[in-house]
Design a protein that fits this description.
Elements lengths: L11 H11 L10 H6 L6 E7 L4 H7 L5 H4 L1 E6 L6 H10 L3 H4 L5 E4 L4 E4 L4 E2 L2 E5 L4 H6 L4 H8 L4 E5 L11 H12 L5 E7 L3 H7 L4 H18 L6 E6 L5 E2 L1 E3 L5 H4 L7 E3 L2 E4 L6 H12 L3 E5 H6 L12 H4 L3 E5 L3 E3 L9 E2 L5 H4 E8 L2
Parallel strand pairs: 1-8, 1-9, 7-8, 11-16
Antiparallel strand pairs: 2-18, 3-4, 4-5, 5-6, 9-18, 10-17, 12-13, 13-15, 14-15
Helix pairs in contact: 1-5, 3-11, 9-11
């Protein structure tokens, strides 16, 4: 499979910083020239729509060249690392990479509570019957978001976020989200809106990226965006991105590898394709040898120092808990394999590794001529 690294001059993070630049809100990363050009002074309404899992690979596989989405791709950009929803959507919203934001993946280890937390669900990944009174995100990961930066620079600009129904006052369908977004663009105020939708990611996890159901889902999303675009006024810009793509995958039952698991201090965390290992003292050499003997054709194993020095998750001001979130080794998928951490639901599509299909996403820009 083709390997692709994130490009932090041409990524979803740079989309956020291009928007910050438009609002004179202190862009700290390079802006994307194609987006900067479209964000002109006559724009009053900025709409940023993030469709989870809509990588370039499925767009090119399932949509014809004359469809709205494909016609309006300004360029191909990358996700961040790891290309996964917790890390990537929070890179867009916090305008920081994981090194600073602390958002690394679906499962993160919190030392004080000694728990492998499913971050978005606020529950123990290995025992989902456990729920916690305190919200770990609020306690340890709360920080300024893109809305806050905009408001500080331009208090007169109103900001909105539209999420699915898993959030209070969320929306049951993408159609309802777009209907509400259109209402926002009709307001006389200047505003910025962020829309997040869970598809096609959820479907791709279930059926893989080639299934005709994915084609139908993309066609439906494309139609919604096209219908929305036809009703926009000249003072509105529509920007559509994805947090990551997906690739078809095959499972490795890591949890059944007793020898390797016996080398670990605690169970694996982070992501099935970007896996975090805390290794017992004096067992690192044995762990490293066994892992590479068994899995080096599928995963690139990096020590914690190598991983941090690589710049994959960014640099700058380190999140205070980053060193406790990360274990001794991180294994990054370079193949079509994924690690199963426990028995249960499997996947046909997944993400978080370094393959082009999960890293390459579109930057779609639409503005009435």
């Amino acid at each position: 499979m083709n390997i692709m690294y994130p490009d932090y001059t041409n990524s979803i993070l740079n989309v956020s910083h291009s928007i910050l630049d438009f609002y004179h809100a202190g862009a700290r990363y390079p802006v994307i020239p194609e987006l900067k050009e479209k964000l002109s002074d006559d724009i009053k309404h900025v709409c940023l729509v993030l469709l989870d899992g809509m990588g370039m690979n499925i767009i090119e596989k399932h949509l014809e060249k004359d469809t709205f989405i494909r016609k309006n791709i300004a360029k191909k950009i990358t996700s961040i690392f790891p290309p996964t929803t917790v890390a990537a959507t929070n890179a867009v919203l916090t305008t920081n990479l994981p090194y600073q934001s602390g958002y690394l993946g679906w499962v993160q280890y919190f030392k004080k509570e000694d728990v492998n937390l499913t971050v978005f669900l606020n529950e123990d990944f290995y025992d989902d019957s456990k729920h916690f009174q305190n919200d770990f995100k609020e306690m340890y990961l709360k920080q300024d978001l893109i809305y806050d930066y905009i408001k500080k620079s331009r208090p007169e600009v109103k900001t909105y976020e539209l999420f699915p129904s898993f959030r209070p006052n969320g929306y049951k369908t993408f159609h309802l989200q777009m209907k509400r977004l259109l209402e926002i663009t009709r307001k006389k105020e200047e505003n910025f809106s962020y829309v997040y939708w869970t598809q096609p990611d959820m479907l791709e996890h279930e059926v893989g990226i080639d299934d005709l159901l994915v084609k139908k889902k993309l066609q439906d999303l494309n139609q919604e965006l096209e219908d929305f675009s036809k009703m926009l006024n000249d003072d509105t810009i529509l920007i559509v991105i994805a947090d990551h793509g997906l690739v078809n995958v095959e499972a490795i039952d890591l949890h059944k590898n007793d020898q390797l698991m016996n080398y670990l201090l605690r169970k694996p965390s982070m992501e099935p394709r970007a896996t975090n290992f805390f290794v017992k003292p004096f067992k690192k050499q044995q762990f490293e040898k066994l892992f590479n003997d068994m899995y080096s054709q599928y995963y690139k194993l990096m020590s914690k120092n190598e991983f941090l020095s690589s710049g994959l998750i960014g640099q700058g001001k380190k999140h205070p808990l980053l060193d406790t979130f990360l274990g001794d080794y991180i294994a990054i998928a370079t193949s079509n394999k994924f690690f199963k951490f426990k028995d249960g639901v499997t996947f046909k599509g997944h993400h978080a590794g370094l393959c082009q299909g999960e890293m390459e996403v579109p930057l779609i820009i639409y503005k009435n001529k």
